[in-house]
């Protein structure tokens, strides 16, 4: 019985939203154009259908509200009640009450009081409403005391299901589901790696063909005269032993060719099957992780109405696109940012009813939330028709905080000024309250969206008001990445943020502007070296007509072309989150493993894209002596993964790095180099471990003053004390590795 009720509630959840949306759209049409004549018959039909559907799922409060809503529309049709602003306000509040009751009945929550709006609907409907619907709960019969009480069997959440889906639902541990997601995300890239075996088999097959041609050319010379024992030719060699060996070689050679052919064909079949089933498996698992936006934002409309009432404002919540599906983790992490943006819209954007009427607006404002999918990205928009951004107040506050000079604030483009709103502590509100005004909310919103590989922008709405747009990837599972080379490092960029890659001659760039640009699709796109953005040496030779490799990023409606040393490949890979490997999540999304086991850093495009008004590093920058004297660090570790990761982190922060695989190589390197400023070493290494290296460094008068940081998995107090007693200047445990701790230690020692 519970399964039947669950399915009925799920169907009603979808149906009632359709009816409410249609009635609200009719209200908006009248308010936009007072001369507009809505289809009152259709609106009446919607209310009647809503009443019948509520009766079918045993929601008497919704049935009662729908009944008197139907009666009100009958009175409006007869002309006994004018369809004026007051009537529309009652209808709107009735729709809100219905939405709140349904949300409560299907998901639970706080009690919903419908008495006041029910009384107003009853006065509007009068005798036109006919008799009351059947009373199922005598306690709720009086309109003046109507309050929603919990349905005994109402589930916490209704989920739309097919006719047989209820019987197929199972409960599993979320941790197990996450492991399944991880396994599925890692499967497809590994299948794609099998393509390398296809190339190797093809190369082996080609080599065998070449050997076969050589054998056929040599064979007539080897077999001359009499028949050999196999009967395939004649030979001039003495005895039968040579003939037997040649014949055996030929048989094995031909068998090898046949085996290569068979292996090649079998691998092709297996790879095709793996791709077919593996891709389907990943798609199915990805769908398990996808949820509708409603799972996180179903109560957004009610929250907006509660906040507006608490502040004495009239706000209609227009919630759209809740059926849009995205990764469960993405939606969960966006919930708080979206709630804060909506609170800001009500608190800062929407005026009081008196202010709106004085400005020639209708008393009730509208805050709209809309979720949609564009390409492979989730787009969330929160807009209001309130007062809009106050450019003068923003400019004044920017000057007061020292973010802009007075002249710059006067001439700054609107996009640059509005971007300052996301700065920590930036607020133009005269006072702070429990909802907004401290200036930290939008900074936190940007930080969280950036960590989701997304962007957030704020703009003035056409016709008055504000629009905040959030764009993030639909899923954080296996991603398509573009791999590039920058100096000695391989880096990856999510392809969702890459508009295009191309090679152009350096002398085709426009260099007469403040920053070099390239003309793409009728737009001047700024060009800057990726190395310079990351803090690398960044110097490039002057343009000599040689092609430049460019990656054009697209973020928050802006594009920038990044110069890289080489464009390497594009493939699906599993990204290990930045938090798990201890790198800066603001600049890097995480790491991926390359074919040789070394990691490549995955860049965060949102951190690379320049903010409005930000100056880009020059395309060509001379290397002065101060850059040549950048601190030089020797990294010693037998793990290629650790060496590569530490090298990438250090070079991204402006250090020169030399790598060694063990202590012995490090001692030899120190004898050859004279400008090493600091050593970072592992402890457990072959030939010479970190403790022995430390003794050798501190025992040599030429290197005794050289700072040494031990980064090791040995976490015992005895190992730590031994390292420090031998002269280590810092001891960092890998299992608690934090790049900020490492960088802080380096800065302290240098």
UniProtKB/TrEMBL annotation:
Response regulatory domain: residues covered: 632-749
Top EC class of this enzyme: transferase
HPt domain mapped to chain residues: 1-108
Keywords: Kinase, Phosphoprotein, Transferase, Two-component regulatory system
Annotated CheW-like domain residues: 478-614
Segments forming a coiled coil: none
Modified positions (4-aspartylphosphate) in chain numbering: 682
Stretches for region Disordered: 125-160
Residue ranges constituting the Histidine kinase domain according to the UniProt record: 338-476
Residue(s) carrying Phosphohistidine: 48
Pfam families reported in the protein's UniProt record: CheW, HATPase_c, Hpt, Response_reg
CDD domains: HPT
InterPro entries: Bact_Chemotaxis_CheA, CheW-like_dom_sf, CheW-lke_dom, CheY-like_superfamily, HATPase_C_sf, HATPase_dom, His_kinase_dom, HPT_dom_sf
Enzyme nomenclature, EC number: 2.7.13.3
Comp. bias intervals (Low complexity): 137-160
Catalysed reaction, written as an equation: ATP + protein L-histidine = ADP + protein N-phospho-L-histidine
PANTHER family linked: CHEMOTAXIS PROTEIN CHEA, SENSOR HISTIDINE KINASE CHEA
The protein's name: histidine kinase
Species this protein is from: Azospirillum himalayense
């Amino acid at each position: 019985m519970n399964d039947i009720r669950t399915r009925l509630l799920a169907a009603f959840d979808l149906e009632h939203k359709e009816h409410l949306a249609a009635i609200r759209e009719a209200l908006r049409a009248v308010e936009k154009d007072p001369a507009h004549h809505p289809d009152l018959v259709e609106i009446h039909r919607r209310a009647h259908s809503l009443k019948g559907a509520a009766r079918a799922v045993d929601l008497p409060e919704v049935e009662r509200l729908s009944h008197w809503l139907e009666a009100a529309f009958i009175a409006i049709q007869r002309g006994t009640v004018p369809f004026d602003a007051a009537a529309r306000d009652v209808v709107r509040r009735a729709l809100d009450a219905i939405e709140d009751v349904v949300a409560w009945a299907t998901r639970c929550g706080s009690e919903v009081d419908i008495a006041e709006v029910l009384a107003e609907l009853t006065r509007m409907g009068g005798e036109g409403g006919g008799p009351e619907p059947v009373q199922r709960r005598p306690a709720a019969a009086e309109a003046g005391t109507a309050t929603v009480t919990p349905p005994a069997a109402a589930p916490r959440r209704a989920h739309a299901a097919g006719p047989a889906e209820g019987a197929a639902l199972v409960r599993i541990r979320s941790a197990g589901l996450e492991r399944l997601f991880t396994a599925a995300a890692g499967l497809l890239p590994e299948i794609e790696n099998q393509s390398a075996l296809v190339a190797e088999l093809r190369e082996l097959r080609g080599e065998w063909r070449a050997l076969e041609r050589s054998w056929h050319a040599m064979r007539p010379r080897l077999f001359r005269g009499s028949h050999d024992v196999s009967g395939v030719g004649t030979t001039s060699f003495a005895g039968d032993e040579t003939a037997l060996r040649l014949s055996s070689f030929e048989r094995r050679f031909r068998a090898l060719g046949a085996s290569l052919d068979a292996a090649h064909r079998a691998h092709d079949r297996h790879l095709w099957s793996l791709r077919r089933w593996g891709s389907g498996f990943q798609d199915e698992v990805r769908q398990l992780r996808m949820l509708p936006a409603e799972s996180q934002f179903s109560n957004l409309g009610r929250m907006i109405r509660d906040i507006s009432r608490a502040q004495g404002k009239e706000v209609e919540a227009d919630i759209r696109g809740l059926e849009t599906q995205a990764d469960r983790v993405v939606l969960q992490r966006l919930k708080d940012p979206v709630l804060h943006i909506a609170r800001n819209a009500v608190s800062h954007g929407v005026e009081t009813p008196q202010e709106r009427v004085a400005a020639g607006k209708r008393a009730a404002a509208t805050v709209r939330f809309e979720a949609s999918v564009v390409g492979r990205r989730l787009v969330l928009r929160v807009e209001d028709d309130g007062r809009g951004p106050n450019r003068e107040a923003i400019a004044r506050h920017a000057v007061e905080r020292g973010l802009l000079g007075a002249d710059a604030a006067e001439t700054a483009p609107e996009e640059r000024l509005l971007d300052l709103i996301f700065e920590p502590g930036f607020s133009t509100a005269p006072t702070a309250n429990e909802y907004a005004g401290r200036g930290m909310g939008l900074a936190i919103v940007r930080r969280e969206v950036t960590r989701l590989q997304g962007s957030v922008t704020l703009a003035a709405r056409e016709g008055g008001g504000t629009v905040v747009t959030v764009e993030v990837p639909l899923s954080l599972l296996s991603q398509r990445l573009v791999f590039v080379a920058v100096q000695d490092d391989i880096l990856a960029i999510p392809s969702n943020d890459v508009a295009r890659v191309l090679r152009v001659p350096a002398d085709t760039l426009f260099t007469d502007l403040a920053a070099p640009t390239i003309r793409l699709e009728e737009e001047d796109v700024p060009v800057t070296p990726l190395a310079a953005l990351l803090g690398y040496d960044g110097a490039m030779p002057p343009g000599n007509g040689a092609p430049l490799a460019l990656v054009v990023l697209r973020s928050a409606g802006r594009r920038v072309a990044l110069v890289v040393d080489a464009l390497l490949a594009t493939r699906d890979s599993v990204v290990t989150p930045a938090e798990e490997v201890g790198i800066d999540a603001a600049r890097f999304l995480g790491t991926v493993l390359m074919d040789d086991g070394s990691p490549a850093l995955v860049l965060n495009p949102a951190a690379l894209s320049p903010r409005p008004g930000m100056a880009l590093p020059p395309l060509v920058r001379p290397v002065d002596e101060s850059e040549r004297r950048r601190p030089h660090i020797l990294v010693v570790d037998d793990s290629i993964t650790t060496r590569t990761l530490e090298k990438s982190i250090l070079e991204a922060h402006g250090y020169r790095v030399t790598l060694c695989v063990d202590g012995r190589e490090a001692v030899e390197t120190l004898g050859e180099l004279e400008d090493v400023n600091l050593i970072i070493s592992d402890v457990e290494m072959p030939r010479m471990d970190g403790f022995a290296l430390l003794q050798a460094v501190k025992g040599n008068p030429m290197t005794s003053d050289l700072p040494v940081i031990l980064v090791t998995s040995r976490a015992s107090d005895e190992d730590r004390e031994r390292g420090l007693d031998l002269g280590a200047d810092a001891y960092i445990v890998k299992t608690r590795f934090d790049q900020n701790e490492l960088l802080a230690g380096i800065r302290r020692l240098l």
